[in-house]
Amino acid sequence: MSSLLGKRLDDLVQRDRVHRALYTDPEIFELELKRIFAHAWLLIGHESQVRAPGDFVTTRMAREPVIMVRHADGGVRVLINRCPHRGALVCPEERGQARFFQCGYHGWTFATDGTLKHVPMSGSYDRDPCGGELRLQPLPRVALYGGFVFASLAATGPDLREFLGHMRTSFDDMVDRAPGGEIEVAGGVFKHAYEGNWKLVLENHNDTYHPAFVHASSIHAAKEQGEAATTGAGEIAIRQMRQNGVPAEAWERLGLWVADHGHSFMGDYHDDAKLVAGLNSPEFAEYRAALERRVGRGRADAILSVSRFNTIIYPNCSFMSQFRQLRIVHPIAVDRTAVYTYSFRLKGAPEKMFRDTVAFANVVNGTGSPVLTDDLELYGRVQRGLAAQGNDWVYLGRGVGGDVQDRDGTRRGATGTSEIHVRNQFAAWVRYMTAES
Amino acid sequence: MSAAANLDLRAIEAFLFHEAQLLDERRFAAWLDLYTADATYWVPLERDQANPHETSSLIFDDRRLMEARVRQFSHPRHHSQTPPSRTCHLIGNVALKEQAADGALVVGSRLIVVEFRAERQRLFAGRCEHRLITVPDGYKIAAKRIDLINSEAVLDGISLLF
Asked: What b-and-e string marks burial along A291-302, b requiring 16 or more CB atoms within 10 Å of the CB?
């Protein structure tokens, strides 16, 4: 045991600072997997990824390999991807369609709800292996909200609605915008990684203090790019890169709210009408009409006036409801993190709108994005810098003491660039890490 | 293969090697000059990806975004290129696949890129397709597509050109 773990974990998180060990100590990381990632609700995916019975995708919950599959009864199941016999991954494929899962090692065969259906040469066992406890283990708890599939490795804890709290309204924002009443995963999955702790990306997504500095080069490159006579494939990216260069006052004015369990969301900072749902474009008029046909003009106005950028569901999810982007954070090691990113198509919206979603995904979540690559580099620099022993503390004092109680159980940062969301994540961290279990 | 086509292939190879050299020497403005005014530069995300509009791409740049990307390379706070990547582009298996109806030459090749940056070395490999337009002093690239064999893998940030 490291000497740090001899200290009280809650001493490592103070009013305006946290100990660097929270980012660098491998033992603390292992403890996080047990106490945070094995207790919280984790986002697994979206039910549109598994439409028909037998459709499956494989992913992971922190270190746990899992299968999300649509069972014959129409329900979505999340199963641990591990054979109860000798432990092999049963499903090595990333996605597909299966009537059953068969382990490659000795042919044990499982139904899509995980029950063991067939064991070859089973006469050599003293009792029938089928029908008992040998099975693909289902997650203790699985629940859906707005089509988003969450699972928890813990049998007890707050239910999903309570866990999400007011953040449910961000998922609502994402789904409500669909004229067809639902959304679906489409357009490919980026999987980017960085040499840093898993918390760094969650701390960055609602950090409005960084764009002017981290993204200085892409802001400059895009601002210097003249206007084009016609708008091409790069237009969305250039506009988004420019948008990151809004003045400091605009960032300060933004709303930034936090809630229980470490969650947070920020207001939207876009003033470029071509980025915000393609306003002023012919497709937008068509889209708006489709939405109004379904929900009426007043409701459509209300839906389209919601103005949020990132929402973070601690500890593994960050999404942009208005821009139909979602990321799932996978902690790999104390200094290694992978982030899978997904785009969503609004059912019933004009096809052209999804093209803009794809272009937006490329610039905000793309592994080769001129914007994202600079974020990833900075996460790595933080990780390397925190190896220094000369200063054990990370300073999180921005806006401290200025938090304001707000509606719906939220608290709002003194300004849009407050570090309230980071302090709030660490408050949740302490609760998870010191809970009796 | 006719003598003329053979000659073309040698000239095409020399052109592709020249492009690779410009990238290795980080002469990005000169690299950009190899491309037409309406060029596209595409690194698909998915294997056999049908188009860059319905599915995301590791990189999908039109000419304007290529220009912005090249401008970013010279900015002192392009963090993911501080320090800059050192690269070695190796082109092989060059073949003229077809001559399109508009006269463009569709050229296939294989590419290996070794990148060294910030104490790490990475290896990329894939298949390239260049769409070349014949101009008085040689060729211009109207479109380039690079299909990396590991495009769907978990990848650290990519801030180099292939």
From this structure: bbeeeeeeebee
Rounded to the nearest angstrom, the minimum Cα separation between A234 and chain B is 5
What is the ipTM score, two decimals? 0.96
Task: Enumerate the H helices of A66-210 as residue ranges.
Answer: 160-164, 168-176, 198-205
Are A116 and A124 within 8 A, CB to CB?
Answer: no
The encoded tokens of residue A99 equal 């009537």
The predicted structure's pLDDT at residue A5: 61
Quote the distance between the C-alpha of residue A335 and its chain's center: 19
Q: Which amino acid is located at A56 in the chain? A: F
| Share of chain A residues as helix, strand and coil, in percent rounded to the nearest 5 | 35, 25, 40
Q: Which residues of A touch B43 (CB under 8 A)?
A: 368
**Shortest CA distance from A361: residue in chain B:** B56
CA distance A140 to chain B (A): 28
Answer whether A252's CB lies under 8 Å from A415's CB: yes
Partner residue facing A238 (CB), from B54, B65, B80:
B65
- Contact list in B for residue A238 (CB cut-off 8 A) is 64-65, 68
Nearest to B127 by CA among B25, B13, B29, B47: B47
pLDDT in tens, A166-177: 999 999 999 999
Tens digits of residue pLDDT in B8-37: 899 999 999 999 999 999 999 999 999 999
In terms of CA atoms, which chain A residue is nearest residue B74?
A217
Report which residue type is found at A1: M
What's the gap in Å between the CA of A288 and the closest CA on chain B?
A: 21
> In the predicted model, is pLDDT for residue A1 greater than 50?
no
Task: Collect all residues of chain A within an 8 Å Cβ-Cβ radius of residue B159.
Answer: 368, 370, 373
What's the average model confidence in pLDDT over B78-90?
Answer: 98
- Chain A positions touching B153 (Cβ under 8 A) are 191
Longest Cα separation, chain B: 51
* Range A406-433 average pLDDT: 97
Question: Does the structure show a pLDDT above 50 at A136?
Answer: yes
CB contact under 8 A, A233 and B60: yes
The tokens of A370 are what? 């001129």
Mean pLDDT of A277-306: 88
Contacts of A278 (CB under 8 A, 6+ apart): A284, A287, A352, A353, A356
Residues in chain A within 8 Å Cβ distance of B66: 234
* B42 pLDDT tier (thresholds 50, 70, 90): very high
Q: Do B80 and A377 touch (CB under 8 A)?
A: yes
Please write the tens of the pLDDT for every residue from A380-412: 999 999 999 999 999 999 999 999 999 999 999
Question: Who among A216, A343, A376 is closest to B156 (CB)?
Answer: A376
